[in-house]
Amino acid sequence: MLKEALPKIITDQVPGPKAAAIIARRADAIPGAIKCVYPLVIDQGAGAMVADVDGNHFVDWVGGVGVLNIGYSHPEIVAAVQAQSEKYFHGMFNIVTHEGYVALAETMNAIVPVRGTEKMTFFANSGAEADENAVKIAKAFTKRPNIIVFSGAFHGRTMLTMTMTSKKAYAHGLGPFPDGVYRAQFPYLYRNPAGMSAADAIDYYTDSIYRVFEESSPADHVAAIVVEPLQGEGGFIPAPLEWIVAVRKICDEKGILLIADEVQTGFCRTGKMFASEYWQEVGAEPDIITTAKSIAAGLPLSAITARKEIMESVKGGTIGGTYCGNPVACAAALKVIEIMKRDRLDERACEISAIIMERFNRWQEDYAVIGDVRGLGAMVGIEFVKDRTTKEPDPQLVSAIVDEAAQNGLIIESAGVYGNVIRFLAPLVITDAQLQAGLDIFEKAIIKCV
Fold first, then answer.
1. pLDDT score recorded for residue 7
2. Domains along the chain?
3. pLDDT score, position 158
4. What Å distances lie between residue 416 and 9, 152, 235, 422, CA to CA?
5. Which residues form the signal peptide (predicted)?
6. pLDDT at 173
7. Cα separation of 108 and 112, whole Å?
């Protein structure tokens, strides 16, 4: 049974012959800009395991880049999707009301930790759409034109979210870009300025927001500050809670909305249903939360949630779209949330974290190429460097480790501003045996590639 299987490579190399043929066809038919990073052509997925077309078994620590917290092909999700698809596939919500949309919005309003008692949710199709809609809503509510984002941020590939995204490799040659997007410094504590203490760092990164007010946009022109609770593409860097408290205070003083981009951190990944629950515990909950990825087990769906007065400031016709809140995707999402609550996948994320952090921290002691290990729950990054003193990034080593791991049945992915971080995003339904098998492959890859 694939769900319980362990990684196993039966071909002489990967890709095997069948996969290699399909990858060659891909190169002829699909733009090269949509990169083929892994030598893998999926035939079947179950839990945290993937079988390729040649019969090789891989344990997947990427999970569709955070989409498969509940795993591949969960039978209850399959049943929910099948039941809905037998009724109807689509009914545009601006034309016909379907109960799944309403029920899912009610469910999200009950669990999403935004500020306020009366909450509202509407749906889009992707994380980028959710982030762009959140900015539109913030501008509608505040009547202000600008937003602040951060170094290391990733928010999507639409024209606005490319602008919001820090790494311009994602936007090369595609300008000009929208105005009104300004950037402050995210607290990347591992790479603080030399000699800076942890306490001073919080003030330093907070002050960078005030510098935006001074140098780029007056505070009373800023509609929202957009923050990832734990940066994904930026290198799996958690936002310190002391800094979040400071950002929340700035927003309250200046009439700015705080938006949490939980596209990757949401749905039990960080040990809570939403990472913003950690913010809520220190009285710094956001005004708007965007979610996507694991919301619907792989079907395109995203959500934007805020308190009622914010949502009702938006004029009719300015939000929504043809496929937003598709009935089949809503059916999947309702079942996802039910299963996550019932099976306590937030607690499972913490169990997984304890297992992997014990190994990762030991590796940091044993292998000088590991500069930092950080994360929240089961969302963890390992930063590789050429020298621990200079902290010079080593993206070439990371690339070699990723390739070597794939040859032995482990799928891992790089991240980070310098491409020198390996991220952990395995489905939360991964078994302990699969987790240990992946850790063993990973460590052997480090040893071989160093």
1. 98
2. 2-60+344-449 (3.90.1150.10), 79-342 (3.40.640.10)
3. 95
4. 29, 8, 4, 8
5. none
6. 85
7. 6
Please give the model's pTM, rounded to 2 decimal places: 0.97
Whole-number pLDDT of residue 35 = 86
pLDDT score recorded for residue 83:
98
What does the pLDDT read at residue 413?
96
In this prediction, residue 171 carries a pLDDT of 82
* Residue carrying the six token digits 């809570």: 272
Distance, in Å, from the CA atom of 236 to the CA atom of 218, rounded to the nearest integer, reads 30
What local confidence, expressed as pLDDT, does residue 2 receive? 97
pLDDT under 50 in the chain at which residues?
Answer: none
Pairing of strands 288-291, 146-150: unpaired
Q: Could you tell me whether strands 410-411 and 57-60 are parallel, antiparallel, or unpaired per DSSP bridges? A: parallel
Residues forming a β-bridge with 422: 382, 414
Tell me what pLDDT residue 443 has.
98
Return d(Cα 330, Cα 87) in angstroms, integer: 13
SS3 of 341, please? helix
Q: Measured between alpha carbons, how far is 157 from 155 in angstroms, rounded to an integer?
A: 7
Beta bridge partners of 370: 384
Name the token pair of 450. Answer: 């160093």
Q: Which two tokens stand for residue 120?
A: 């509202």
What is the spatial distance between Cα 22 and Cα 131, in angstroms, rounded to a whole number? 34
Is the CB of residue 213 less than 8 Å from the CB of residue 147?
no
Decide: 426 and 405 in contact? Cβ < 8 Å.
no
Contacts of 12 (CB under 8 A, 6+ apart): none
- Contact present, 402 and 413 (Cβ < 8 Å): yes
DSSP secondary structure string for all residues of 355-390: HHHHHHHHHHHH-TTEEEEEEETTEEEEEEEEETTT
